[in-house]
């Protein structure tokens, strides 16, 4: 078995085919977890498992890492994933990382209802559906666990062109706090991470001029590497953070 701070645990990571989700699979597996990489893009999730994870520990009784196609905004797709985990692993996941997310930026006065709904459906409702499904399984099995929801600094401060995105990410923080209060007695911890700017495909779409403007406000004067937030996520997943719940943790270079 791979030794590490989450050794022998089963983890589900959404948005695992790219950026922060992929880096999270990498660090969780390095720290001994068996990882289920779930993404809308199955090929990308499979690539994460093949090229970014440390070989899983089959000696703890769990099957190895796996990749799964998942649309977090679709409750049927989430239930299918839950069923697959039940059949394949015969144990509930006790680490859940909600990293799937999208942007559909536009000025408030120009934003379509469709773009508003799309962002809320993936970022907020998607995190809700996944959190609800896997928390239920933990409660039924009477197992402690850790759920980490990826919000954003934008959920706290807002941003031009991101009324839909900021609303979704503020919702994630509030939902995290409510879930932490409900699930605390079962020793299921729920925390939110508020990343600043990280080098991922999502941020590749932001114009260079905007990035340079943001970097002037970052005391550490650079963008983050996805592995730097993945380390914090893995700490929250582990028992090293056993007295932290309901928190909204900034990981942003001081922005
Ligand atoms: P990313 O590189 O774009 O990765 C997001 C992943 O989620 C992609 O693989 C995407 O698949 C997948 N996805 C999209 N819709 C989905 C759905 N309905 N069901 C399942 N998977 C879906 O983005 P990232 O930068 O890693 O962001 C990860 C999380 O961190 C997001 O929640 C984001 O809002 C948050 N965040 C990121 C930053 C940053 O600087 N990067 C800052 C603050 C917060 P497709 O590529 O096929 O769409």
TrEMBL record:
A Pfam family recorded for this sequence: adh_short_C2
Signal peptide positions (record): none
Keywords: Oxidoreductase
InterPro entries reported in the protein's UniProt record: NAD(P)-bd_dom_sf, Sc_DH/Rdtase_CS, SDR_fam
SUPFAM superfamilies: NAD(P)-binding Rossmann-fold domains (SSF51735)
Pathway involvement of the protein, from the record: Lipid metabolism; fatty acid biosynthesis
NCBIfam families (UniProt xref): PRK12826.1-2
Family the entry assigns: Belongs to the short-chain dehydrogenases/reductases (SDR) family.
Name of this chain's protein: Estradiol 17-beta-dehydrogenase 8
Organism for this UniProt entry: Loxostege sticticalis (Beet webworm moth)
Lineage start: Eukaryota, Metazoa, Ecdysozoa, Arthropoda, Hexapoda
């Amino acid at each position: 078995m791979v030794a590490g701070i989450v050794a022998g645990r089963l983890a589900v990571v959404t948005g695992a085919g790219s950026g922060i989700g992929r880096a999270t699979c990498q660090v969780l597996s390095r720290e001994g977890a068996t990882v289920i990489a779930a993404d809308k893009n199955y090929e990308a999730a499979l690539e994460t498992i093949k090229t970014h994870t440390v070989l899983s520990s089959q000696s703890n009784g769990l099957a190895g890492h796996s990749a799964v196609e998942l649309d977090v905004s679709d409750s049927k797709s989430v239930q299918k994933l839950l069923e697959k985990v039940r059949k394949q692993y015969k144990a509930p996941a006790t680490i859940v990382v909600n990293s799937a997310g999208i942007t559909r930026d536009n000025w408030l006065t120009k934003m379509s209802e469709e773009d508003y709904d799309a962002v809320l459906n993936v970022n907020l409702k998607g995190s809700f559906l996944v959190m609800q499904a896997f928390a239920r399984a933990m409660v039924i099995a009477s197992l402690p666990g850790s759920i980490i929801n990826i919000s954003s600094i934008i959920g706290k401060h807002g941003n031009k062109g991101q009324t839909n995105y900021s609303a979704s990410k503020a919702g994630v923080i509030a939902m995290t706090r409510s879930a932490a209060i409900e699930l605390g007695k079962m020793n299921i911890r729920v925390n939110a991470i508020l990343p600043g700017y990280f080098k991922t495909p999502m941020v590749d779409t932001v114009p260079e001029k905007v990035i340079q403007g943001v970097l002037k406000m970052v005391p550490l004067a650079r963008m983050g590497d996805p592995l730097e937030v993945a380390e914090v996520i893995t700490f929250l997943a582990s028992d090293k953070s056993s007295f932290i719940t309901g928190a909204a943790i900034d990981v942003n270079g001081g922005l």
